[in-house]
Amino acid sequence: MTYEAAPATKMIATHCAVCARPLLDSESVERGIGPDCAKKHGFSKAQGEPNWLAVGVALSELPEGSVEQKLIETADARKLANLLVHRIACDQAGPAVNAYTNAIHAAGFVKLAERIAKRVAPIAVEVVGSYLMVKAPYSESAVIAFRAIPGKSWDAAAKRWQPSCSRRRDRCPRDSRRCGSAGFELGS
Length: 188
Hints:
- This protein is an alpha+beta fold.
- It has helices at residues 26-31, 35-40, 52-58, 67-74, 77-91, 97-106, 110-120, 140-147; strands spanning 124-128, 131-136, 153-155, 160-162, 183-186.
- The chain has a five-stranded mixed β-sheet, with helices on one face.
- A hairpin with a 2-residue loop joins β1 (124-128) and β2.
């Protein structure tokens, strides 16, 4: 077994939770975040009041009696954020990272959570006018999937796939002269 695959190594934060760069000093390894990211992305001070109900919902999948659950009971946002940032730094892109990020946001560390979310969840969905915009890094498989959508067209100016919408007013949620109820943007 290699050093990297050893179970004990998985508990060490070797890369920053925010930018995924290697952590070089012992304090950064202990916290799970490098000094530059900590300063730049609001690790030192919460930007809002904690919403403990939302924290509980974000961490609801964790087993009863876990360290995270106990920290919710103490209502200490700083300790909870420290623990969750370290967990993200150890896991990087595991299934629990989104829940941890949502809990950090709910604990009041909005700026930090938004930056982590931007790195770990590169696909974003937003409403732009009458379009549902899906922004994602370039992926050949995504391009193939979007090309398979019947009736779509490529809007070169906006750099997005635009599925067609019914020409009949009773089927189209928008003005029937304009077509395309959703847009898909790749390579943002």
